[in-house]
Amino acid sequence: MALDASNKPMNQAIILQVPAGGPEDSQASESRWRRALGQLGDAMARHKGVIVGLQWLVVLVYFSLVAIPAFLDLPDEDARILTNLTLFAQFLFWGIWWPFAMLSMMLMGRAWCGVLCPEGALSEWVSRHGLNRAIPRWLRWGGWPFVSFGLTTVIGQLTSIYQYPKPVFLILGGSTAAALVVGLLYGRGVRVWCRYLCPANGVFQLLARIAPVHFAVSEARWNAAPRLPAVNCPPLLDVKRQAGTGACHNCGRCSGHREAVRLTPRSPWSEILGLKLDKAARWEVLTLAYGVLGIAMGAFQWSASPWYVQLKSRIAEAAIAQGQLWLLADNAPWWLLTHYPEVNDVFTWLDGLAILLYIGAETLVLGTALLLGARLAGLAAGFGASWRRLAYAYTPLAGISVFLGLSMTTISLLAPEGVNLAWVSPTRAALLLLAALAGLHLSLRILSGTPWARRLPTLLALSLGAAPVFLAWAYQFWWW
Ligand code: SF4
After folding, report:
1. How crowded is residue 357: how many other Cβ atoms within 10 Å of its Cβ?
2. Rounded CA gap, 175 and 119, in Å?
3. How confident is the model at residue 30 (pLDDT cuts 50, 70, 90)?
4. Alpha carbons 460 and 450: distance in angstroms, whole number
5. Whole-angstrom distance between the N-terminal and C-terminal Cα of the chain?
6. Measured between alpha carbons, how far is 190 from 107 in angstroms, rounded to an integer?
């Protein structure tokens, strides 16, 4: 039997470790784990003031580390993470915060957004004192997460955001300023920016879909409970239906509401299995294929790629032959292309063009292969219009890829500190294996009920779609 094309929610089985003592111990540990999670959610609702205090502390640290290094001299060769503020900020932003925020989405859902994000906290705070205008239609466009993710990723590469503090100030500071303006204009005490425009919203929502915990809602309890004032959900969700989904910020404010909302463990695949494949899901699949496994992969890889060097040489030869010598000039400002003559790091217009072409080409190749793989898999499985659910089987690969790519900066910053890095290569291989196995397991769950004669060609098509991504990592980590 093929997957239910009506997209009805399927079973939300809970995956548990079975202790050696047998099923009774298993049930006991399940209820202990459930109880502890429920209590954690309720504590978040009770101690909202503590969370707000924490958010202001993060805002303070964030502003110091975004702003101050932009006005300091660049660190010299002897500078170290613990003795130089610029390197410390670089390590904290790109070595810790960014890769581990991505990892946390897959482990804890969007708790980062709901509990710690300085931009979200500021946008919400300012909207309490703002104009409270209605949210315009253009702002609700479903393509913003994809577009803003792509643009910030590409601009970050052109300006070398991982290496220099000025582009950090420009891009992170600019994003925060935009979040404040949106907060001032729209909504009252909510996070319009986070819901519709944040550049990380698309990738965070996608990865949070496989988190093994969520705020579950008991519809029966909700309906039976007396009416209460609605919860002020920061990302403007209909709590009864959307608490605990990829869009939920896991802020905990609705925990215990009508005695129906509770932080609970779940199967990491349950949300994808029950997902409504609407217009928003189409954008999400595009973000998955062309964004997280396309643009981001190109951004992670161009600087290590010998093909990028070849591409640049070819364009340079053609530019010289055509007399287009302006391409070789390095007079672009730092906010457009990397420009730090004091450390001999200056991009020419040719560099900028070659980076754009390389990232664009890798995006097209990887993204198209993934979508073709999912489309063919859908045909093989007889899924019809529901083929996009199979594309979600690439979500674990997307999450692990983005973590591997971002953690390359962590490794490159730790190397000069004398840290032993012998574990890095086997860990990368183990994570890629985990991505493959998790994708396979999720695919089999999606195909549950489909005859094996259909499952095998479906799995083959999905594997062929993902193969270029695995190859790209093999080149980057072991073959180049
Ligand atoms: S549904 Fe809204 S209020 Fe409830 S945890 Fe999610 S973001 Fe917070």
Report:
1. 16
2. 8
3. low
4. 15
5. 45
6. 25
Single pTM value for the model: 0.91
Q: How many CB atoms lie within 10 A of CB 184?
A: 16
Residue 234 Cβ contacting ligand 1 at under 6 Å = yes
Query: d(Cα 394, Cα 287) in Å, to the nearest integer?
Result: 12
Note the pLDDT tens digit of each residue in 248-280.
Answer: 999 999 999 999 999 999 999 999 999 988 888
339-340 vs 213-217, strand pairing mode: unpaired
DSSP H or E stretch at residue 305 = none
- Find out whether 180 and 126 touch, Cβ atoms under 8 Å: yes
114 lines ligand 1 (CB under 6 A): yes
Whose CA is closest to atom 3 on ligand 1?
Answer: 233
Helix (H, G, I), strand (E, B) or coil at 478: helix
Q: Whose CA is nearest to atom 1 of ligand 1?
A: 243
Token pair of 268 as six digits: 């990491």
* pLDDT higher than threshold 50 for residue 202: yes
Q: Could you tell me if the CB of 237 is within 6 A of ligand 1?
A: yes
Q: Which helix (H) or strand (E) holds 261?
A: strand 261-265
Atom of ligand 1 nearest to the CA of 239: 1
CA angle 93, 96, 97 (to 5 degrees): 55
User: Who contacts 215 (Cβ-Cβ below 8 Å, separation ≥6)?
Assistant: 41, 243, 244, 248, 250, 252, 254, 255, 261, 262, 263, 264
User: What are the tens digits of pLDDT across the range 299-336?
Assistant: 999 999 999 999 999 999 999 999 999 999 999 999 99
Distances (CA, A) of 160 to 94, 166, 313, 330: 12, 9, 21, 15
Look at residues 126, 122, 123 and name the one whose alpha carbon lies nearest to residue 193: 123
Residue 251 Cα to ligand 1 middle (Å): 5
Q: Give the C-alpha separation, 193 to 215, whole Å.
A: 22
Residue 25 has pLDDT above 90, yes or no: no
Residue 253: CB within 6 Å of ligand 1? Answer: yes
How far is residue 428 from each of residues 127, 129, 459, 470, measured CA to CA in Å?
A: 42, 47, 24, 11
Per the DSSP assignment, residues forming a β-bridge with 263 are: 215
Rounded Cα distance between 43 and 115, Å, is 13
Whole-number Å distance between alpha carbons of 308 and 479: 15
d(CA 146, CA 193): 14
CA distance 161 to 184: 28
Strands 261-265 and 213-217: antiparallel
